[in-house]
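Appendix C: a fully annotated inverse folding record. The material below is reproduced so that readers can follow the format used throughout the book. The structure is listed first as tokens, followed by the designed sequence.
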């Protein structure tokens, strides 16, 4: 079930919505806002959603993008869903550690590991 989207590639695997980012750099305010809106639509489409954000294609992430992820995480929890992140490159993961967001998010090294943990 591939949905057309400018920033995201979304597929279903074993009841999990897997989201891959089309953009290597998630830096600009407008694209972050659009990504946030697209992700919100995915979350609102299913109560108790299992959502995996796969960052394998992402090289750069702005602090505004981190804010959008925090908001998304809150929304997923309100919907009694489950959000996991995977394949975050080392530089971006350092930012997650510095900001202690690695304690807020359930982060896995690979998408396969994340899928197995749902």
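Designed amino acids, in order:
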């Amino acid at each position: 079930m591939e949905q057309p989207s400018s920033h995201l590639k979304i597929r279903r695997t074993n009841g999990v919505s897997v989201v891959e980012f089309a953009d290597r750099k998630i830096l600009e305010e407008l694209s972050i806002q659009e990504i946030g809106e697209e992700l919100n639509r995915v979350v609102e489409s299913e109560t108790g959603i299992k959502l995996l954000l796969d960052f394998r294609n992402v090289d750069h992430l702005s602090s505004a993008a981190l804010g959008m992820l925090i908001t998304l995480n809150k929304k997923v929890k309100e919907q009694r869903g489950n959000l996991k992140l995977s394949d975050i490159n080392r530089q971006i993961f350092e930012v997650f550690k510095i900001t202690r967001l690695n304690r807020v998010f359930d982060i896995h090294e690979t998408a396969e590991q994340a899928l197995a943990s749902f």
